[in-house]
């Protein structure tokens, strides 16, 4: 094997090693301990295995975890009534909400950001509002949204909308304002119309910054949807986590956490690819 | 005399009328007939209208028979309907008989055993038996249930019995006329403490404890406050009471965030099951027969869709009567434990609903009426709740206890439908009862309120 081949395999090998180490430590930490106390069999039948020996229910082992993930993988799309659907179905609900809220936010943030970036006056006029609204936790809007929008599904989408709005807005404004003056001057010399200037000069120049804003936004939106769904319930991966919390099922919660991580990574990678498409060498 | 809660669908139980229409020996025979005649009450009513028309047009039996044989029933029907609006006549008749305005409904619930009748009515077919297609939707907390019901996302919901009173009075919500046509369960709550407090059984040792209750406007809040106050602790100063949704209580107890809670089941039993807590006292030992959760709907729902409301309430009362019988409890536990409903191990739900349970200290206890189900919304329950709302400063100002109680707790409707279902409602709507050895007289709420040493009200 050449030196180069070895180099490319080094990082994944290290990742694998770290993973195995993690599972090993987890396994060692969750080895079942032998209870000192024993209770009468009639009582033991009525409580969980740990409580029967005078302990609290323990954290699941890696083997429990693998078995649970396997059962979910075998049947990800089951539907046993409105309150019990498979992980795949729940993820689809969450993704639909995130994409809808995110697209609506993009429709608002990019034109408004353009305006702010091109006009110093609008920028100064809107800046105080943006500065106050930006740091508000999106979930703080939830009670207000439920009260005014009168629909929990719409409220969840609204919360996604409001949290994905700001990074896109700020990044678009920044990207538009930072277009190099030489290029704008060239456009002016050539007497390019305002629309042509916006679409042929500013947009391509600002596109990498705008895409970065979108990438930040989708990450935040995916973080927020889980919390929002835990709050309103009904459907979605956040509801799934809440419902299994209700049942104190750590294995199910961990399965959901893993799924949330994988989907979040996929969303981020897609946006990263798109950013690379519009990036140009200076 | 038969008991009010004999199951009218049990073919072995002799009922005075044998079946709901009175024509069959048993209810099973009645239902078989109903199915054979292809349908529900509505199509039977339609048949009655048709036969009335045919008999009016051709009053002589022999003539009618010859006519129908000659042209066939289908042709005859078509011929008649060309000059007589059979469809419209059927519709008018159906309306008189109480046509259900809306059959597809959404009812919200919190995953606790208090909601047993609302939940079990779905898997055990009580809703469909009363002509409804109800979707029962699990909800994250009481505030969300309240908002979703006020938003009309839910047609009706499982609430805590003080909630409709609070919503009507505008306490913690916009004042909206609300109604509570049925109590879900009586008893069935408990004070659970963390295992590390197993020596501290005297409430006087609880100074500085953090307790959780499911909602500000809950029987749990009032019972816990009442209980510690009777032991001389001020619930606002000597202990801390915080609101935690029931499903999150065990997780918080396990994390030592709280020292205990007065919670609905299966939360208490789940804490025992996981070795996290023990049951200190059952709520029935604080007030035997206290109401807890309720079936609630807006006054708008009641007045604008009266037949839907009646059918829904009837299904709930029917399910409540079924849940009351001890021999049905095991079967109910199996029906409501799955992930779609409570999402709990069956044994936990079974211990709550049946006699035998583990108390978390190594003892097996047997309490037959740990939880019971009785739909009747006594006005005196509402009056007691209102005195406690006043006692802790949740509502201020003067209002007529009796009037609010009457407007929100729809005892008359409940009594009427209980009679229709062959149950025996109580004759009065108010009664005296005892809370921790202290008698409550609904006729003298102000004197009762004044008698407490620890209170916020002036």
Describe this structure in words.
The complex is a heterodimer of chains A (282) and B (458). With 282 residues, chain A is an all-alpha fold. Chain A has a domain at 89-278: MetI-like (MetI-like fold, Orthogonal Bundle), CATH 1.10.3720.10. Chain A is built from 12 helices and no strands. Chain A has helices at residues 3-29, 41-46, 49-52, 62-74, 87-118, 120-133, 142-149, 152-177, 181-189, 194-232, 237-246, 250-278. The longest helix of chain A has 39 residues, at 194-232. The two termini of chain A are 38 Å apart. Chain B is α/β, with parallel strands linked by helices and 458 residues long. Among the domains of chain B are: 37-96, no CATH class; 104-187 and 291-347 and 375-425, D-Maltodextrin-Binding Protein, domain 2 (3-Layer(aba) Sandwich), CATH 3.40.190. Helices cover 42% and strands 16% of the residues of chain B. Chain B contains 20 helices and 16 strands. In chain B, strand 7 (210-213), helix 10 (219-230) and strand 8 (240-243) form a beta-alpha-beta unit. In chain B, helix 3 (61-71) packs across helix 4 (73-83). Residues 1-11, 13-23, 34-45 and 90-97 of chain B have low confidence and may be disordered. At the A-B interface, helix 2, helix 7, helix 10 and helix 11 of A face strand 2, helix 8, helix 11, helix 12 and strand 12 of B.
How would the blueprint of this fold be written?
The complex is a heterodimer of chains A (about 280) and B (about 450).
Chain A lengths: L2 H27 L11 H6 L2 H4 L9 H13 L12 H32 L1 H14 L8 H8 L2 H26 L3 H9 L4 H39 L4 H10 L3 H29 L4
Chain B lengths: L26 H10 L4 H17 L3 H11 L1 H11 L2 H11 L7 E6 L6 H5 L5 H4 L3 E6 L3 H9 L5 E5 L1 H8 L8 E6 L1 E3 L1 E6 L15 E4 L5 H12 L9 E4 L2 H9 L5 E5 L2 H7 L3 E6 L10 E6 H6 L1 H19 L4 H8 L9 H8 L2 E3 L5 E3 L4 E3 L5 H13 L9 H8 L2 H10 L12 E3 L2 E3 L4 H6 L8
Parallel strand pairs in B: 1-2, 1-3, 7-8, 7-9
Antiparallel strand pairs in B: 3-11, 4-11, 5-14, 6-9, 6-10, 12-13, 15-16
